[in-house]
Amino acid sequence: MAKFALLIGVSEYSEGLRPISSAILDVEAMRRVLEHPDMGAFDQVTVLSNPDKGSMERAVEDLFTNRQRDDLVLLYFSGHGLKDQTAEFCLSARDTERDQNGELRISTILAASKLNKYMNNSRSQRQMIILDCCFSGALVQGMPIKGELNIQEELGGKGRAILTSSSPIEYSFESEDKDLSIYTKYLVEGIETGAADKDGDQLISVNELHEYASERVKEAAPAMTPKFYLSLEGDDTIYLAKSPLAATNPIFIYREKVREILDEWSKENICKENFNRVERNCLNELRNELDLSLQEADIIEQENLAPFRKRLQNLTEYKATFRELLADSISITEGNRRRLKELQSRYGLRDEDIQVIEEEVQNEVYPITPTIPPITSPSAKIAQILHSIKTLKPQNFKLNLPVRIGIASIAVVSLIAINRHNIITPLIPSDCPKQTGDFISEGEEVLNYSQLFNKKKGTEYFAQCDYQKALLRFKDAWQQDRLDAETLIYLNNALLEANKMQYYTIAVAVSIPKNQSDFNDDDGDSRAKEMLRGVAQLQTKINLGLLNDNDPFLKYFPDQNFINKKAINGKGLKVVITNDENDELLAQKTASSLSQRPEILGVVGHYPSEMTLATVDIYNQNNLVLISPGSTTSELTKYPRKNFLRTVFSSDQQSPAIAKFLQEKSIKKVVGFYSEGSPFSESFFNSFKTIFTRPPFSGTVVKLDEFDLGNNFKAEEAIQELRRQTEAKITETIGLVLFPKAIGNAQGDAIRLIKLNNSQNWVIGSWGLRSSRTLEQIDNLQPFQKFVIAVPWDSLTSPNQDFLKDAKILWTTTSVNAITALSYDATLALTKALEKANTPTRINIREHLKSPDFLVTKGATGTIQFDQNGDRKKLDENGDPQDPSVEFVHIVECRTLSSDFAFVPIKYPTAKDAGLSCLNSPKKPSP
After folding, report:
1. Is 70 exceeded by the pLDDT of residue 366?
2. Residues forming a β-bridge with 3
3. How large is the C-alpha radius of gyration of the chain?
4. In sequence order, what are the residues at sequence separation of 6 or more whose Cβ sits closer than 8 angstroms to the Cβ of residue 835?
């Protein structure tokens, strides 16, 4: 018996169908769990991203052809589900389009009849179809669905299981958790956590998986109704994956108790954020009986409460939107009613939910009042007229347009006549509305592609300089996603403007690629987000120092417990964000724009050496200081610029520590792999080669020709060449150093090389390999036993515990990346220079930063001081010079819900020695 899967995701469409950004992420998430040997353990998983119709049909045919009777064949599709002009269901492709009459072109769609034919011709008697289809997309721009879809009739058959995310009139919408569709999110979660294993037999059947995902979807969006069709003999079923948790496992027992409580909520239509006192006490007692840690219990609870909180958030957001519309007008226009209906569909709200909300809001905004007592004040009389107009119920009374305009005009003219001498012309800021679309934002535009409704509304208000409304929206968005640093920065900026506080302005330059696959880090842990977290943490600490202890806004900030929060000379800090999308030309354009804004006194950025080299001279020409938290190339200080500094140690400074590590392993010869043409990668390799080949190391460094990380790299051939060199000199121990660039596939190439090396040689990797993407690619620890990564800082050995405590308060997580810490320090250095200057200018800020007397003693990564070239000096806690330190980390086993492994400093042999909290359940068994 073998298991085969084809995963198709279509996110890009021609005109007439809206794009579905989650589709590509959906198939990658499904691949992760199906390929995992301890979960799906599929023998072959094929992924098609944005295929045309021809490629898609050939792949479907290949999937079902040449299979055996007992083979399990799975077809997963994420994209638009459509009906053609004959009312037949079909799957869309990237090139799906209409003819001049508006009908779907048959040659661009895969009809159900064709799909059914391939399934019928297959020998496999265990076939599974998962359709995460956004049927409502077919309603866009003249592509209506005609009649009801009957998926079972069109695709059903003996030996088949069909799962669909929604009915043909519903949205299968994207969740806000890493942008997966909500149905796929819970399919993946059910397999990955084992939560879908209802009976605890450590096997997840297709029935159990759909039941779990369907329950979770309906908790978050009751209007969505996922469907399941199964046609097997007797009680037979299809087992899709393994589960790590048996029925006797404490985690399994605790999760079932939590589910029992939440099932009662669902039956009684209860929607709240947390357990009541009785429920909490019961869970606490059970946790103690099972000897579960608080962390383990909290993970289970948060995971299961998330759909209810999402539903509550959607209800609250719809109510706020409806209230705002009703407050602006006594009736809802046809266009706004249509948009409200669309919002209802996207939020998964039922008609009965909407009825309750709208009646409640109408009674709040336009209450039916008894008799209004006589009023003699002229202005009050006019107010009474206007009040009487507003309190007329739209369904009971209708004024025609001329009459309404006439009454309102009389009222306004009367008020002007009465209060002419008190009229004050409102002052509208000269920069309103603010410019958008220029990749620069202080709050007027979302740059990180977040789809949070409150955040987008906040940017709209900010662009119009309505800072009070923007503040409230950003506050709500921040409470929804406590890891979105862009939101927090905009919240800080709106707070300063709404309260008319004085402030200094700096900028942060990040690279948020349009195509997230351009970076090798996990999307939720990207470099840009980590940079923004470091900046936002210090900005919040500064601006909270402006508020009084009794300020009502503090109630929205648990962060008021920050350690040593303090303003800058009584002023706050505004942060302008610019996104270069990892494009050098765009980086230069935005650098020029920032330089022309005189209020900007310094810039934190960029992270990639490529972007820094592209922009540093533009900033230099405009006397604008640039402090980079991540650019290590020696090119930046080999040819010094007076305005450039960095909080990360350069490749020249890190190389001696790497050479010393290899020397301690008795390694005299090193084979280096890097990315040709990359300023970071080439610089690091050349710096290391220079250091390692000279005394006291006197080693040899070679580069294998034609092996370029990130450029058609062939890992198997590289290993073969390495083995030939090793065999030629039996007595010589050879080490490997890997310096892949941070862009493209270079880091993935490095991981494949490490796996093929299989711990035969010691391997040292550069900082970028310390990422969640590396951990995701590990099946077992054996190939990584002799692999270490040189990093500039690690939270487990941080010299500043106060920084970590603040980070935990602010981001609700103890996981802090070195990029966050170094970006915090870059911002801290800038603000200390601002503090020293009575009247800060770009020039005196630069002079302060480069002064021999400039010293910051409580940085996140230690003491901060720069030399005349802009490189960071390494100082101990007393301010005395010492060699730049490099922390070496290795990979250890540490089971969590998302991974089996973690990075820790090499001085800790195990996760337990490092003090990490890992789940106490056994590691998932091999298949």
Report:
1. no
2. 72
3. 31
4. 568, 569
Q: What is the pLDDT of residues 287-329, one digit of tens each?
A: 888 888 877 888 888 878 887 888 888 888 888 888 878 776 6
Rounded to whole angstroms, the Cα distance separating 281 from 260 reads 15
Q: How confident is the model at residue 882 (pLDDT cuts 50, 70, 90)?
A: low
Query: pLDDT (tens digit, 9 = 90+) per residue, 531-553?
Result: 999 999 999 999 988 887 777 76
* The predicted structure's pLDDT at residue 376: 44
How many beta carbons lie within 10 A of that of residue 16, not counting itself? 16
Cβ 174 vs Cβ 180: under 8 Å: yes
- Identity of residue 210: H
Q: Alpha helices of 391-517 — where are they, by DSSP H?
A: 401-418, 453-463, 467-480, 485-498
pTM: 0.57
Looking at residue 660, its pLDDT comes to: 93
What b/e readout covers 777-796, taking b as 16+ CB neighbours within 10 angstroms? ebeeeebbebbbbbbbbbbb
Count Cα neighbours of 276 within 13 Å in the Cβ-side half-sphere.
8
Beta-strand ranges (E) seen in 766-918 are: 787-791, 856-859, 862-864, 887-893, 901-905
The DSSP element (H or E) to which 862 belongs, if any, is strand 862-864
Residue 808: pLDDT above 50?
A: yes
Joined tokens for residue 270: 């209860």
> What is the Cα–Cα distance from 828 to 838, expressed in whole angstroms?
17
Single out the residue of 641, 651, 514, 487 nearest to residue 577, CA to CA: 487
The answer to whether the beta carbons of residues 127 and 232 sit under 8 Å apart is: no
Average pLDDT over residues 113-141: 75
Instruction: Say what the pLDDT of residue 146 is.
Output: 40
Is residue 178 predicted with pLDDT exceeding 50?
no
Task: Give helix 250-267 / helix 206-220 axis angle, nearest 10°.
Answer: 50
Provide long-range contacts, Cβ within 8 A and 24+ apart, for 339-344.
Answer: 343/318, 344/223, 344/318
Q: Which long-range contacts (CB under 8 A, 24 or more apart) does 795-804 make?
A: 795/821, 796/904, 796/905, 796/908, 796/914, 796/915, 797/887, 797/905, 797/907, 798/860, 798/861, 799/861, 799/862, 799/877, 800/858, 800/859, 800/860, 800/861, 800/862, 802/563, 802/564, 802/858, 803/860
* Token pair listed for 872: 């960071």
Query: Beta strands of 13-71 (E only): which ranges?
Result: 44-49
Cβ atoms 160, 222 nearer than 8 A: no
